[in-house]
Request: fold
Amino acid sequence: MNYIIFTVVAVALFILSTLIYRTFNHGLSRSAIHQQTTRMGVASLLAMTPWFIAGSFAPCPATIIAATTSLLTMMTYPVLYHIVNRNTSPDYDNYMDTTFGLYLWGLSGSLILLAPAFQGGIFLSVILWIVETAFLIMAVAQIGYYFLYKNIFDSTSVEVVMSTGLNEVLEFMRYYNVFVVRGAILLSVAVISLILYGDIAGGSDIVISDVQASLLAAYAIAMTVMMFKGKRSPWNRLGLIYLANEVKSFRKGIADYKAGAAERAESLQLKELSPRSARPSTVILVIGESANRDFMSAFTPLDHITTPWLESKLCDEGTILFKNAYSCAIQTVPAVRMMVTEANQYSDTGFSNACSIIDVARRLGRRVHWYSNQGHLGTFDTPVSLIAETADVAKWTHQEVNKPQFDEYLVDFLDEVNPDTDNLVVIHLKGSHFNYLNRFPEKDTVWRSPSMRDDVVNYMNAIHYTDKVLGMIHDYASTHLNLEAMVYVSDHGENPRKRRSPRFDGFENTRIPLMAWLSEDYRKRHHERFSILKENAPRYITNDLTYELLCSIFDIESSHFDVTSSIGHREYRHNRDTLLTYEGRVRVADDKL
Reply:
């Protein structure tokens, strides 16, 4: 009788999994549907195999936990993907979450039945607990992400998560009510502990023979190998894991980029079109963070002066404001990756083959310094960190957990730049990155915030503080380093009135400041270049063309420099109708500002 029941349950699992798959997957070919349907049929039988071997089934807390974990694994990614994409995507990728959930139920069942066969059963129960906890965390993370952002993880957001440091996590948590955060942590600990208790104290009481134990052990080993071994394993074809593997693959490309740096530099041929300064000089690129020009009074008329230093420089003939600049992305990593290399939204040049502005500067005989107040967890932490590591000198502020590190500390690094050599200095600010309250010292508060959650006021203070830091950098470099040119551009914008979203949520996240300052000596030696930059200042530009802007400022020609993408050349071909943002997915022309 039991075997009839097991067969009926297997058929029910097949029907359930098929309904999930067919309901939440659209547009796949008949062959793909047939392949997955066949796979789910086999998986449904495998899911019930442990109970066939044992010849009995007795519900217990451990089986309830296992069933919950398996069902969440089957449904979470397909359902959320369907909710987010059903109105925009004609077909969905052929992931294996549904089938994997069936496999997971079978593997869990074998461990539950095997546990009593070992003395105390604790070892296998703990293994089961670890597996279930890992998959529950994956499911809850996806569900929580959806409720926060009304979106599902994609490769960009997974890359951001993998690149997020502990400081940023703590800041994110501090933004919310302390009791809510503590309650969520305590609830998580309680649930995880309850699962452990259920797996150990609430295990199966079914008695199995030595032969049955051997068969179950062989089954568990075979299922583990089938589920997790190989690049094409069901594990690697889970929706979330597939995205993580995409990021890992990209990071391998980043590693290849670094390995090929010397070869790229050797093949980089260029020609300077104008004479250099009579004495060594320094060019500075300041990369801002989350700065929206809508909140910068130098770019947009406001009731408050948020950028006093920048506005004071407007009387300097060498200051050029590009008031129609947009970001190429809404995340730091892809934006900066394109900003400092020739890879952009408008070319076919792949990142691993793209020369960087560091390569160009070193080829010109300049010593390159990269100083950052962004997180750095090692060479392979992010593509930005890896690009930075190709500089002659690359240093990061000391990132201390739970302690804000202010951007003015970066100015101290300039003491080590040699004024007797030609230099390129890249300074990567923390800028007005969330949480805004941590971006400026208390003494630099201009507008008092009635509460930590007054994000608009805190954001304005952060913008004001960034303006002060820009002045400090400019003043020091002008006095000590024969500053020839300074460019300031933000990686992307921010809308402090709304919670940050990982997907495109309005042009406020793309409207950025772009400023160039050129010394009097530079303007004399590169008069035509300066005139073209002034003339083109009202034109539209995206920040993935920063590389081309700097190449123009260096006044070079090269096979790795497309002058038609440089706002510093008369041949500049881009305009409001052709420019893109959000990594090529949104037209700048759609901004109705």
About this structure: The two ends are 71 Å apart (CA to CA). The chain has a mean pLDDT of 88.
